[in-house]
Write a structure and sequence with these properties.
heterodimer, A: mainly beta, 50% strand, B: mainly beta, 6-stranded mixed β-sheet, 5-stranded antiparallel β-sheet, 55% strand
């Protein structure tokens, strides 16, 4: 059984640029959630994808967008990067959309915006 | 306002000491989860508690869910350097199973 993987591991961008982060969900999981985590803080929910549709969104602006593919892998896109977007971006997969379903996290992508 | 308050925010102790971290709320939760996150990794689920007053043990870690299901604690006995990490609580509020609520975490450093 393959766990959740994310790419790239680290990324450096400059203000105003765009970035795409990728996540492969654990085998058998159809739901992917994305989180932003500042250093030493808890994860902040960005959005969740289920069956290729967005299924819930946190308090993030529209320049944060996503996709889910038929194989349940997912992308997070961030446009017009700002310095405050520097964070660890975590992807978690689960077997359903309920918060009771255990989420399995990937190692994250560390994004630095200069 | 943070729905789940974790305390302390930071904790630095010597190997062999005991410690307790807390996760408190004014809301009732159907379940609470505890995670540990090590540097460069995603959070890993340690335990889920669902019944008021429930106590679960995982080796040297003891987890308790408050009787009113508004709070939880994690007690570590004889801490070891391998226990170092960010401890996060997350919960499902009663009546709203669509969203997992996260605390801000307790950063624990166990010094040899």
């Amino acid at each position: 059984e393959t766990g959740v993987t994310q790419s790239p591991t680290h990324l450096i961008k400059t203000r105003g640029q765009q970035v795409t982060l990728r996540c492969s969900s654990q085998s058998g999981h159809n739901t992917v959630s994305w989180y932003q985590q500042a250093l030493g803080q808890g994860p902040q929910f960005i959005f969740q994808y289920y069956r290729e549709e967005e299924n819930g969104r946190g308090n993030f602006p529209p320049r944060f967008s996503g996709l889910q593919f038929p194989n349940y892998s997912s992308e997070l896109n961030v446009n017009a990067l700002e310095l405050d977007d520097s964070a660890l971006y975590l992807c978690a997969s689960s077997s359903g959309t309920s918060a009771y379903n255990e989420q399995f996290f990937g190692p994250g992508t560390r994004l630095t915006v200069l | 306002t943070q729905l789940l308050e974790q305390s302390p925010q930071f904790l630095s102790i010597q190997e062999g000491e005991n410690l307790t971290v807390y996760c408190n709320s004014s809301s009732v939760f159907s379940s609470l989860q505890w995670y540990r996150q090590e540097p460069g990794e995603g959070p890993v689920l340690l335990v889920t508690v669902v019944t008021g007053g429930e106590v679960k043990k995982l080796k040297r870690l003891t987890f308790q869910f408050g009787d009113a299901r508004k709070d939880s604690s994690l007690h570590i006995t004889a801490a070891q350097p391998g226990d170092t990490g960010l401890y996060l609580c997350a919960g499902v509020r009663a009546g709203n199973n669509r969203k997992l609520i996260w605390g801000l975490g307790t950063s624990l450093a166990v010094n040899p």
